[in-house]
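Tokens for Peptide deformylase. Go.
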Amino acid sequence: MRICKIGEEILSRQCEPVKPEEIDDSFRAILNEMFDTMISANGVGLAAPQVGIAKRFFVLMSDDDVKRVFINPEITKTSAETAAYEEGCLSIPGESESIVRPVKVSVTALNENGKRFTIEDADGLLARIIQHENDHLNGVLYIDRGDKDFKESIIEKFKKKAEKAAKKAAEKAAKKASLEAKLAAKKHKGN
């Protein structure tokens, strides 16, 4: 499963709710694949748009090592108390920034079986991940909540990376086409 990177349009989209009838075995297989992708990338959370799906769900595994699924989550309450924490994102690899968010959060969502659950006053890393991943469902990245100059430098950095990768791919395709043309000409001569 490929993780979308900053600059890809899907990361700035408002996601659509998951319909109850969509929560079936094939949906649960996607959730399992998301957990595998998140764990192999050393992440603690992964939202559907990060893997190219514009739907409202995410998976996470906080410091208690419990795998949690949030489908159509709604944050119902946040604490007035806030705290700064260094956040990173699998869609912005290698970067991090101190982001201020509420310390506690209450959330209601559906689990992987379509059953509604509520977590009251989640705190610590769990609260942080819930807010970060929920932002993804609204097309918001953590850099949208931080320093404006940092955000602009990150956007420019990843834009250059994408342009360099596209140029390299085009050169590789041109070399392949040239080699194939030479082989075809050689084969034609031999006939």
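The helical segments are 25-40, 124-137, 148-190.
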